[in-house]
Amino acid sequence: MNILYLDCISGISGDMFIGALIDAGADPAVLQQGLKRLHIEDEYELEWRKVIKNGITATKFDVKLHAHSHGHGHSHEHAHSHGHEHAHEHMHSHDHGHEHSHSHEHDHTHSHDHAHEHVHSHAHEHTHSHDHEHGHDHTHSHGHTHSHDHGYEHIHSHAHEHVHDHTHSHEHSHNHDHTHSHGHSHDHDHTHSHGHTHSHGHTHDHHHRSYADIVKLIEAAGFKDSIAETALSIFRKIGEAEGKIHGVPLERVHFHEVGAVDSIIDIVGAAILLDHLQVEAVYASRIPVGSGKIRIDHGIYPVPAPATLEILKGVPLEQSAIRAELTTPTGAAIAAVLAQQFGPLPSMTVNRIGYGAGTKSFGEHPNVLRVMLGEM
């Protein structure tokens, strides 16, 4: 039997899960082709790149939203932490039907941890980290990078900053991230985007997708039954938790446009890649959730965030001294829905290993999700 073991040494998020599967050998082209069935490819592009986390090479997966897919936003309640990492990155990004300019820009990215991983039903939990990455990112980027790491780090590109004189117009965009050494591994992930909105946090154009909308989107995509059932089960887990926390029926739970796209890609993408890798059973370690407090609209709450904790009811949790949110609602739902058992590594023959990187960096351990594919 083909099994997947999730070694959640630093928690789990949707992007870390996708990154780990790609790192373990999943074909990104399969992910891209599968996601096209949703017919929302004009709203995003995908990026994956190699980074170094505390000496461990891992794959960082991001969903970049196109500027037109959301409106003008502003930031809320920034709590800052500082991570250190050396990321020698080769970013693969795939745009959809745009003409691009070949420009060298310094787009100073601000990484914001959003504790609701873009899932909003009238509550927005925000923690923000300044994760500075020394990265040599070769990106094709046209929009806003939303890197949902622990606590939903939204990397918002400010597309009109520090444009160098040597801008060359071409039909394909090859944005080159220019990193600057500051003496001690503060990574400045200068993501270069051609977006025109200066957006922090959630947007206010009031374009939402409800839980019911997302169900219809997935059901209409024509996925094989196993993929659709997995994706719908994970979304339902999140929707039920959000509905309970905020006192609204499941059908009325709304996902902000920005968050909905990210969540759809992570959740449907997870289902696509599990099918692609022919995973028959999933096992997981105990789930570390982090510690400390985060600020949400209703005040300061302890980690884990209310929705995350609701999702993880019945799942063995692990205490962590890290003062940050390690597990996001999407990551929690992926583990809670997929894993049939939580605990130590089961007896298995390991054939493939993958590391999915988060955005933050911690001194105590590499901020990665390790996955093992093998046979039992």
UniProtKB/TrEMBL annotation:
Amino acid composition bias (Basic residues), ranges on this chain: 193-208
Superkingdom field: Bacteria
UniProt keyword Methyltransferase, yes or no: no
InterPro entries, per the entry: Kininogen, Ni_insertion
Renumbered residue ranges of the record's region Disordered: 67-208
Compositional bias of kind Basic and acidic residues: 74-192
Keywords recorded for this protein, A-Z: Nickel
Protein name (Swiss-Prot/TrEMBL): LarC family nickel insertion protein
Source organism per UniProt: Paenibacillus montaniterrae
Organismal lineage: Bacteria, Bacillati, Bacillota, Bacilli, Bacillales
